[in-house]
């Protein structure tokens, strides 16, 4: 079971890297559009996040808070919606794009600093 959890965590981090890396690459290029890395990164984040949260093993000390998991899920779904809806547009509003980047970083901060 531990090996599966580690594989899921690894895939979760890859999804984060794809989402943030794809967004930063587009932001630096000046053409603000949703690229495939952002779309797949957001999908991977939601799916692996759900899989990581699903087997709550009885509330031990190392278990994350259900409130933390709910906050992370809401943020991840918001990111997915913000990436999925305008994915076929030639260009995305600057504020919308910065919102995707900000929410991605906030989600990582929640995962890191919320104990």
Short descriptors:
mainly alpha, 115 residues, 0% strand, single chain, 4 helices
In short:
The chain has 115 residues and is mainly alpha-helical.
**Ends distance:** 23 Å
Domains (count)? 1
Q: SSE order, as H and E?
A: HHHH
Total of helices: 4
> Percentage of helical residues?
over 70%
Shape: elongated
Largest sheet: none
Q: Please compute the radius of gyration using only Cα atoms.
A: 15 Å
What class would the helix/strand composition place it in? Answer: mainly alpha
What portion of residues belong to β-strands? under 5%
Tally of strands: 0
Mean pLDDT: 93
Description:
By secondary structure, this protein is mostly helical. The protein has one domain (2-113). It contains four helices and no strands. The protein has helices at residues 2-29, 36-53, 66-84, 94-113.
